Each structure stands twice: as structure tokens, then as C-alpha cells.
User: What shape does this take?
Amino acid sequence: MISVLRTTWGRAVVVRIRARRVFVFGTLLANLSLLALPRALALDPDRRISQYGHTVWRIQDGAIGPPTNIAQTTDGFLWIATAQGLLRFDGVRFVPWQPPQGQNLPGTHFSALLGSRDGSLWIGTTRGLARWKDGQLRTYTDLEHPTGISAIIEDDSGTIWATRYGQYAREAPLCSISEETLRCFGKKEGIPVTYGLGLAHDSEGNIWFGSKVLVRWRPGTPPTTYFGEIAELAKGDGVGEIALGPPGTAWASLDGTGPRLGVRHYSGRKWASYVVPGFDGARALSHALLVDRRGSLWVGTQNDGVYLICGGVADHYGVSDGLSGNSVVGLFEDREGNLWVATDGGLDMFRDTALISYTTRQGVSERGFHSVIALRNGAVWMGTGDALNILRKQDGKTAILDRKLSGQGIGPMLEDHSGVVWLGVDLALMRFQNGRFREIGGQRFAGIGGVEGIAEDSGGTTWVLIDPARNY
Assistant: This one.
């Protein structure tokens, strides 16, 4: 039952409704974004890419040459391989690095980098592999028989692994370095490929690497191969990148696009094209895959920027959003949780921020916010001039924005003690209960100026403020 108390205080009329809890919320000015505090400082998987802090160094500005690889050493320095040379970055300046006089790298064209747990920087070039540690540079390549290095990783035991290519790598495209000893594996171990590309390791000690097929191998066991039935792979580079998820899951990028190419997903001992809302793996030509420490998949594409996939939903970020270039050549997560993207146009860094913004860029219906309320069920309702925007979260998925009451201006809102939500909608008062919106009082509120505010007192009485002089 609605009981209306028409008491005029100056220009305002207060309406009292039998119902019942007091919520205090701030007023947001029009054209400002809604801000929310995050739960913790880390790369929050619930955010869209546009909600991260973004810093970019562009080639066209002269800040950096075309980047190809990124690594971080235990002293905190970031290392960026570019077409012009190797750079060391301290967070402020990019400083060109050269080995000391009398020490030489096996080539000047960089192809892979790794910062290992012992403080070493491993450097792969188109002619070999080297390690920089404690001011000393050691080369692990016979310079008379040079091989190109595609990728470098460190496994759980501290062993370094590298894939390689070239005339002198055909018999053994996979190598390990343990206790200063270089060992290479290939034909003698039954590995049926002559070059190696992307590289990863799993918790069971298996090494995964790309070639004309995808190889999974553990020393002392026969190799397992995938995609040998796809004849189209022979026309290109084969399997370029591999990223591992939870046990029994993986992603691979196959050179080319089409029903059996692009980005594919391994689960239940089967491979399938990776398709989620916002991303079709069969259409994605990718040379960069990364599963970050929160389990989100990042996909860098050759001509369509970068995708972040979390909870089965994809978010895209490209040049039109501020990315330095649409061709992504490398992805790297540093120890602070920042995500680095190397493109044909420069270097981008995405980081968590103290505030999370929600604007039209994240799907809010318009720029003008009128009200906001956080409900006890975890949803956040945002009132704008043309709709009710509901921000909700699903288990394991990124935040989702729904839109209700489209075409109507949403004013003040209140959730009472029983969970009923009261809203000022245009000139009317509405109540949301049991999944349904219902107008309260018919044209009564329109006739006295519409709803200006809603509150509930300690006795469970809901108060509605209206202004008869309001200009509509």
C-alpha cells in the first residue's frame, strides 16, 4: 500500500511510502565516468583492456626502434630487442646496450630474449645463443656452424631450452643448457622436424614446440605430434606459437587462416578452432600467444591488434583504441604483472590502476550519469539519461553490462531492507522486485513534479522527494 503525505516545504514535496534501510551514495556529475576501487593490485582479469592504465612508446616519435622481443632480469631491468639493437629500460630511459670491448654476440639481429632465475640474460640471435651474466658474455654456438634461435624458456628445474633453425640445426632443432652443457635433440630422439619455433613447458616436464607440426616431448620418451594431417601447414611456417593453460589445455597458432588454421585450442585430448564471443580463432593470424599469471589468454594478431580472453569472453584493442600498431610481434608479462605488447608501431604497456573506469567505451549507454547504486547481490546499477545500465559479474567471467528501461531517464535509486529496488524513472516512481519493474502510483508522481530523491529511515519507511517546480 502507498501512503502519500503531501507536505510542502518551500518548493519541495515529500512523499512517504510504506516499505522499509538507508543507503548513502554520492552524486556523479554528467559526462564523468563511473569509478570503482579494485580488490587488489594485479592485472585484474575482470577489466577490459581499455580499463587498464596504458603507456605507449611509438616508433614515429623516435622513442624506440621497432621492437621484437622483451625480457626482464632479476635486477628489475627490462630488455627490449629492436631492429637497431638491444635496449635496457629502467622505467624512464631506454639505453642502448653493447657487450664490453673484446666480447661479442653471435650476430646483431636479435630473435629471442629470456631473463632466467639466476640473473642471466639469455640472448638469441639469427646466428646463435649467448648468456650475459656478471659482466661476462658466453656464447653457446659454434660460430663456424651458426644457427638461428627462435625461442628461449626456463623450465621448473632451471634448465634453459631453446628452439633453433637453419642449415646446421636440421638434425637437432631443440637444445637444452644445464650446468653449462649444451645438448641438442632431434632426429636421434625420433623428433620428426628440422626446425623449431614457439616453445613452452608443462608441469609434467614435457617440452612443447612448434615446427611444421606441433611437438610434445619429454627426454627419454617418444615424441607426440599434432596437426600432421593438415596439409596446408606445409605452405607456411607451420605452428608458430604455443601457450599452455591448466593441465590438459593449450593454445597453438597455426600459420594461415581457415577452418583448421589460425588459433586452436586443446582440451579433452582434442584440438578445435578456438571460438568465443568476440573472437574467432579460424580468422586470426597470430604470432604471439601468452597466458598471464591470472589465467587470461592474450592473442597478438598480425593485422588486428590484441585480444584479451577471460572467462570465455574476448575483448579487443587496436590502433583505433590507442595501440601503437595493429601488427603484434611479441607479448610479455613482467614480474609486477604489467603486460607489454610489441607492435610494428612501437611498444605498449598495460598496468593495473587504483581506479577502474566505466564509460561508453566499456558499454555504458551514454556519457551523462545521473545516479549509481551497488546492490547486495554484487550488481552495480547506473542511471543515465537514456537507460538503466546494470554491471554484473559471473563466476570466472569478466564484468558484463546489461541495459534495461532503454529510452528512459533514470534518476535516484534505493535498495530497501527487503531487497526491493526503488527508482525514479523519468517522472515516475518504479519498483523492481522478483525480476520485474512496476510503476508505483500511476501518474501521481508526474503530476507533482517527478522523483528527485529516495531514502529509507530506520523504521523502514521509504521517503520520496519531488520538486513541483522542476522544469521538464
Residues 444-447 form the longest helix (4 residues). The two ends are 28 Å apart (CA to CA). The first strand starts at residue 7 and ends at 9.
